[in-house]
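Lab channel / #folding
Pinned by the channel admin:
"Please post every new chain as: sequence first, then the structure tokens as a reply. Keep commentary short and put observations after the output so the thread stays searchable."

First post following the new format, from NK:
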Amino acid sequence: MGKYNGFNAGGGNMQQLMRQAQKMQQDVARVQEEVGNTEFEASVGGGAVKVVINGAKQFKSVSISPEAVDPDDVEMLEDLILSAVNEAIRIAEETMEKEMSKVTGGMGGALGGFGF
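Reply from TO:
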């Protein structure tokens, strides 16, 4: 078997590397499923608007307190909803990145990303 830059191109090292890659792939799938099923909540405006999404970025609920509904200021309510949605997405993405980093040792980008 030949060597390439000190790496044994055959034998146990390659098999070990393949096992590690398969385990990482399984761990990534597990984390994606776990985080995908986790719910994330964001609340803005002192609780006036609350949004709940899951890690797959599917919206589970939107709650709007009656006090936030002002027919003369619909724009404020729209802004609150957008803020809550964006914050919930940010929390979900941050959690996914953190959990993936644990599995991949920070190599997520080097592995081509994981489609989140």
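NK: Residues 109-116 have pLDDT under 50 and may be disordered.
TO: also worth noting, Helices lie at 12-37, 74-104.
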